[in-house]
Design goal:
The protein is 74% helix and 2% strand. It has 10 helices and 2 strands; from the N terminus they run E-E-H-H-H-H-H-H-H-H-H-H. The chain has 2 domains: 50 residues, Arc Repressor Mutant, subunit A (Orthogonal Bundle), CATH 1.10.10.60; 128 residues, Orthogonal Bundle (Tetracycline Repressor, domain 2). The protein has a two-stranded antiparallel ribbon.
């Protein structure tokens, strides 16, 4: 058994540590991205019934390549989740640069609604990922709340969103409706319009 210290955790052998920080070759990076993108689509359609073989086929790579990148199914689920969270963070920056403050808020929240709906079909596997990495859910919520705060604060500064809420309040409203047991994408998009009516500053 390797020694464990409070500061560093399990010690890594030199070759393991080097591998962990070694950048991927271009072809390996392409395969990794293709697998994550394919898994996102297949998991959103088939949830827990999706097999690793289906995902490899959708990515147009061999099963061996899939398992080299993701030895366990839960590793792939976690990679999809992390990538999607990062996508929401990036979307906040993109819409802030390209759209008016109010339109940016609408576009980002619409993106969140689509993101949340896609996760519903493999929630059980996501819960397993959260158990595997206890900080994953917390850190992801913090990143999403910060992204929501980015678009909301810009709308508040422009005077088009009310000033008595923050990003966490907004995500409690929108996230809560998306997690309802009977929620659908169409229903959540309709409810989002009601939320936006309440968020918009009164002229």
């Amino acid at each position: 058994m390797r020694p464990v210290t409070a500061a560093t955790g399990p010690a890594q052998a030199p070759d393991e540590a080097a591998h962990a920080h070694r950048p991927m070759r271009a072809d390996a990076r392409r395969n990794y991205d293709r697998l994550v993108n394919a898994a996102r689509v297949v998991l959103s359609q088939r949830g827990s019934e999706a097999s690793m073989e289906e995902i490899a086929k959708a990515a147009d790579v061999g099963v061996g390549t899939l398992y080299r990148h993701f030895p366990r199914r839960i590793d792939l689920v976690e990679a999809v989740y992390r990538d999607d969270v990062q996508g929401l963070v990036a979307l906040a920056d993109t819409v802030a640069e390209e759209l008016s403050p109010w339109d940016a808020l609408i576009e980002w929240l619409s993106g969140f609604v689509r993101y949340a709906q896609a996760k519903r079909v493999f929630l059980n596997e996501l819960h397993e990922a959260f158990e595997k990495s206890p900080d994953l859910a917390l850190s992801s919520r913090e990143k999403i709340a910060a992204a929501a705060g980015t678009v909301l604060s810009r709308a508040q500064q422009a005077g088009v969103a009310r000033n008595d809420i923050d990003g966490r309040d907004l995500m409690q409203l929108v996230g809560g409706m998306c997690m309802a047991s009977n929620s659908t994408l169409a229903g959540n998009e309709r409810l989002l319009n009601l939320v936006l009516d309440g968020v918009r500053a009164q002229r």
